[in-house]
Specification:
By secondary structure, this protein is α/β, with parallel strands linked by helices. The protein has one domain. 38% of the residues lie in helices and 13% in strands. It has 12 helices and 10 strands. The strands form 2 sheets. A 7-stranded mixed β-sheet has the order 3-2-1-4-7-6-8, with helices on both faces. Helix 2 links the parallel strand 1 and strand 2. The protein is globular and about 55 Å long. The N terminus is likely disordered. One of its GO terms (molecular function) is glucuronosyltransferase activity. Its main location: membrane. It is a single-pass type II membrane protein. InterPro entries: GLCAT14A/B/C (IPR044610), Glyco_trans_14 (IPR003406). It is found in: Membrane.
Length: 368
């Protein structure tokens, strides 16, 4: 009986390690295929600088399904900044034509063509909300982003139903506060017995994702094997890895940086936001809001009043130096991309972040 148990344990451990290895190899293979959709860097006129003396850089994983290419493109333009990296994923239910069209739309943006920091996954992963495919796709995306860019600091997951409530210059506005330093993980979670669960939408540090994907410890792979058999695994995997790791468990901040409104009693998803929610969204100090119907009118209000973004154009930041004319995109010309100009929501966001970090510094975290 003891030998049988040992064999079962070694088989589970080997399977977990093998699965992690497959994820990494798959990332390499997928990069080769989606690289055909990648925007090439033809002209590079501004040097992106990284390090402690410069703003942090974000890796955005933006996912959607069939019929959502236009929503993903609009979201990309809303959160675009030359300092960041972006990976767009249309699930396997979407057609190759949709992926190709999305790639063409991206190549039509001059800044993206020049900086070459946006990619589209060419071999898509299946995405099933209730199953484990979402967490597999997210880990796959993380492995790709770790491979293609060695400079980003934070990993952010967004879906086609999300939208930003501040400019990218505002997200990285105050380096001194260390809102997005290397010692906190923003992830909404609640304690459980051995496992921890919470929001499926996360902001994770690069070092933590390296621990999960490239890992020097078997624990992330062992938990991955467990969560492949758990419904809604994206609401528990990262949370449980963090809270079961001595290196990371005291470095969580219990917030997913999103404004959401739930029905009473709550359903599986928050309700769709409309213009009647605008004032509350603005006052929340959140970085993103969720969820919106396609072409919901309040998105245009956010574009105009918060992002300063015209239709089919990127959000204007300090890096944009072109004149603002109806016939010309001000971000079609650019200067120093390392200089920031916070938008109107930056102050509210920073106040919100200071509150969250104050709770973290007081010793109250999501794992205890």
């Amino acid at each position: 009986m003891v030998m049988a148990a040992e064999k079962k344990w070694f088989f589970t451990l080997f399977s977990a390690a093998f699965l992690s290895f497959i994820i990494f190899l798959s990332a390499i293979s997928t990069f080769t295929s989606f690289n055909n959709f990648q925007t090439n860097t033809d002209v590079f006129t501004s040097s992106v600088q990284y390090g402690a003396h410069y703003p942090p850089s974000f890796a955005y994983y933006i996912s959607g399904g069939r019929g959502e290419k236009d929503r993903i493109f609009r979201l990309l333009l809303a959160v675009y900044h030359p300092r960041n990296r972006y990976l767009l994923h249309l699930g396997s239910e979407a057609s190759n034509e949709e992926r190709s069209t999305l790639a063409v739309m991206i190549r039509g943006v001059s800044a993206i063509r020049a900086f070459g920091n946006v990619d589209v996954v060419g071999k898509p992963d299946p995405i099933t909300y209730m199953g484990s495919s979402n967490i597999a796709a997210t880990l796959h995306a993380a492995a790709i982003l770790l491979k293609v860019d060695k400079s980003w600091d934070w990993f952010i997951t967004l879906s086609a139903l999300d939208y930003p409530l501040l400019t990218q210059d505002g997200v990285v506005e105050d380096r001194n506060v260390r809102c997005f330093g290397h010692s906190q993980w923003f992830i909404s979670a609640y304690p459980g017995s051995g496992f921890v669960g919470g929001s499926p939408w996360v902001l994770l540090s690069r070092s933590f994702l390296e621990y999960c994907v490239l890992g020097w410890d078997n624990m992330p792979r062992t938990l991955l094997m467990y969560f492949t058999n758990v419904m809604l695994s994206q609401e528990g995997y990262f949370h449980s890895v963090i809270c079961n790791s001595p290196e990371f468990k005291n470095m969580t901040v219990n917030n997913d940086l999103r404004y959401m409104v739930w029905d009473n009693p709550p359903k599986m998803e928050p309700r769709f936001l409309t213009a009647t929610d605008y004032d509350q969204m603005v006052q929340s100090g959140a970085a993103f809001a969720r969820q919106f119907e396609q072409d919901e009118s309040v998105l245009s209000v956010i574009d105009k009043k918060i992002l300063g973004r015209a239709p089919s154009r990127t959000t204007r930041g300090a890096w944009c130096t072109g004149p603002s004319r109806w016939w010309m995109d001000p971000c079609s010309k650019w200067g120093d991309v390392n200089i920031l100009k916070p938008g109107p929501q930056a102050k509210r966001f920073m106040e919100s972040m200071k509150s969250h970090l104050s709770d973290w510094n007081s010793g109250s975290n999501s794992c205890t």
